[in-house]
Design brief:
Blueprint: E1 5-9, H1 13-24, E2 28-33, E3 44-48, H2 49-57, H3 61-67, E4 68-71, E5 73-77, E6 83-88, E7 99-103, H4 104-117, E8 121-124, E9 128-133, E10 138-142, E11 147-150, E12 152-155, H5 162-167, E13 175-187, E14 195-198, E15 203-208, E16 213-221, H6 233-240, H7 247-253, E17 263-271, E18 277-278, E19 281-283, H8 286-289, H9 298-315, H10 319-348, H11 357-369
Length: 372
């Protein structure tokens, strides 16, 4: 397809990787982001070999690896802390690690800097007020009173996507699972050189982010989807860890003291069964396949989406053909991640069969090693 004028709604991981991939093909790209400060919360994220492969494809690998911590195994431990499995993880790119732990702010900086350097226009503090697709283009009104006309619009605006609501007003809404995740950063201990996942009703993991920093995630049952006052978060997180017997986790729990450093998030999921586009507007990432973090692939699926969307736009003669091919390539892979992550969550809550982390991790690595 000829070069296009493209609007991307959402300046997060999916939106920025889409901007980078689309600029590489010569398209004019504008990214809008509702947050005027373009802020990101300060804990980490796990990314597996398929993301390393994607970052290499996007030409970001050096900056990406410099900002994170590469590793090649997952340590599975029972609640007492004893290791029961050490799973080597497959490399998909020679001489590059098979996993990377990286701070979300560090990843955001890598992607944002590259999108700007590639020539994308970034507009902060605005949202779309109205979309009108006349078949030949999309007229867009923005919240600041400005307007524009674009060949296509990409909705990368996350779990609560405004774009999804605009084009699919009857689409399902995100569903709370009954479980939430707590996250906190610590100085890295020497034994944490890869993901350490602790089995048990309270799921705990330790992830290296750099030579100096690691983060802990904790998944807990939270019936009724409670909300907690900011000034109580550290004490509540410590309380949630009180039943975990592993001595290293108990020692870390004692260090949780800064309410502002605790990131608490109810876990919700969504999978859009119908087409992911309408006319010249297409959705990607959490806007159509939001997953719980049990397989660590939410961001990875959005990053892969961005590459596949750019590839299909380059091949197709029309946006409709490109979006249909994009959906066909992505739907079953993303469905697998959403459904398997949700199944792990339900098992931990006692609402389904208990799934062993080691088995689920091995199966996931096999799946995401397949070409996108």
């Amino acid at each position: 397809m000829q070069t296009l004028d493209i609007l991307i709604i959402g300046g997060g991981i999916g939106g920025l990787t889409s901007a980078i991939a689309l600029r590489r093909d010569g398209h004019a790209v504008t990214v809008i982001e509702r947050d005027p400060d373009w802020s990101v919360y300060g804990v980490g994220i796990i990314q597996q070999a398929n993301v390393v492969r994607a970052m290499s494809d996007l030409g970001l690998i050096d900056d990406y690896l410099s900002a994170g911590f590469g590793f090649d195994h997952v340590s599975v431990r029972i609640p007492t802390g004893r290791e029961v499995a050490r799973i080597p993880t497959p490399r998909l790119v020679p001489d590059l690690p098979s996993n990377v732990g990286i701070g979300r702010r560090a990843l955001h900086k890598v992607l944002g800097d590259r999108a700007i350097a590639a020539g994308a226009t970034i507009r902060l503090g605005i949202v779309v007020s109205n979309l009108h697709d006349d078949g030949d283009g999309v007229d867009v009104m923005f919240s600041d009173g400005s307007s524009g006309r674009y060949d296509i619009v990409v909705g990368a605006d996350g779990l609560y996507s405004q774009t999804r609501t605009m084009i699919f007003p009857d689409a399902p809404r995100p569903q709370f699972t009954g479980q939430s995740v707590w996250r906190y950063n610590f100085p890295r201990t020497p034994d944490v050189t890869g993901l350490c996942a602790f089995e048990g009703p309270t799921g705990v993991g330790l992830v290296p982010l750099s030579d100096d920093i690691m983060y802990m995630y904790v998944t807990t049952a939270e019936p009724g989807n409670p909300r907690f006052a900011r000034e109580s978060l550290a004490s509540v997180m410590r309380d949630r860890l009180s039943g975990v017997p592993a001595p290293e986790i108990r020692a870390l729990a004692d260090q949780i003291s800064d309410d502002d450093a605790v990131v608490y998030k109810p876990l919700e999921w969504l999978f859009l069964e119908e087409a992911w586009h309408r006319g010249r507007v297409v959705l990607l990432g959490d806007a159509v396949h939001a997953t719980t973090p049990h397989l660590g692939q939410g961001a990875g699926m959005a990053i892969e989406d961005s590459i596949v969307l750019a590839e299909e736009l380059a091949r197709a003669d029309t946006p409709e053909a490109a979006f249909t091919a994009f959906h066909a390539r992505r739907v079953e892979r993303c469905r697998y991640i959403v459904e398997q992550s949700h199944a792990i969550c339900m098992g931990q809550l006692g609402k389904g069969p208990l799934i062993q982390n080691a088995d689920a991790t091995r199966a996931m690595f096999i799946k995401v090693s397949e070409p996108i």
